[in-house]
Structure formats: C-alpha cells, structure tokens
Amino acid sequence: SEVSRLAVWCRDNNLSLNVEKTKEIVVDFRRAHTQHAPLTINGASVERVSSTKFLGVHITEDLSWTNNTTALAKKSQQRLYFLRKLRRARAPAPIMYTFYRGTIESILTSCISVWFGACNASCQKTLQRI
Prior knowledge:
- This is Alkylated DNA repair protein AlkB homologue 8 N-terminal domain-containing protein.
- Residues 65-106 form the Alkylated DNA repair protein AlkB homologue 8 N-terminal domain.
- It comes from Cirrhinus mrigala.
- Pfam families: ALKBH8_N (PF09004).
- There is one protein chain.
- The protein is of the alpha+beta class.
- It has helices at 2-12, 66-88, 93-108, 112-115, 121-129; strands at residues 23-24, 40-41, 44-45, 47-48, 51-54, 57-60.
- It has a two-stranded parallel sheet.
- A hairpin with a 2-residue loop joins strand 5 (51-54) and strand 6.
- The longest helix is centred in the middle third of the chain and has 23 residues, at 66-88.
- 5% of the residues are buried.
C-alpha cells in the first residue's frame, strides 16, 4: 500500500518512477523464511536482488558490510598505486599527504557513519591495513 501511495504521489507531482532502475531488497531476520509477495509499481514487477549499490554504498539483504569493505579496499588499492608513483618521483611529503587525503582517505571515509559501526573485525582490519 505504501508503494502504491508513493506511485500516486509521484504521478500527482509530475514525477516518474523508473521501474527498470528500481530494485527491491528484503531484509528479514526471522528464523522461519517467509515468501514475500513480489513488489509491483504501476503494474510492472520490480526486480528483487540480494545486494545493490546505493549512493556508493554496497547494501546486502543480510546487512553485512563485507561487499562494501571489499569494494572500498579495491578502489583504495588502485589509488595507492599512484601514491607509490609519487613517492618514486620523490614528490614532497605535503603533496603526497594532500594526494592521500583527497583520493584515498576520502574513499575510505565516505558514508562511514552508515556502515563502520556494523563492520566485523575482519573488515575493519582490511581497511586499517590500507
């Protein structure tokens, strides 16, 4: 009923919902697995996924942050390559520090208030290594 109300509100306010870009994640921690009815918007079925990326954060149906941590670590490792290149070129320390803060630290801390508190020790260790 909430999705129907949202669809009506969007229509009344001249907004369109793109069902092809819409994903559904069911977060359910009950022991007994229950079948959830498929979600439909304006008669079109919404794709149900086990994980998705929303505003740069990987969200999974079990709310574990391993996928997110892995993606952040990979992206940061790619940027560390350029930091090593700067060191080999004997770039001054302030430039290397600025590069690190702008390209690597910003990746590691993006949306950190959302996911870091629920990270397990393994994920935290992976990020700490970087």
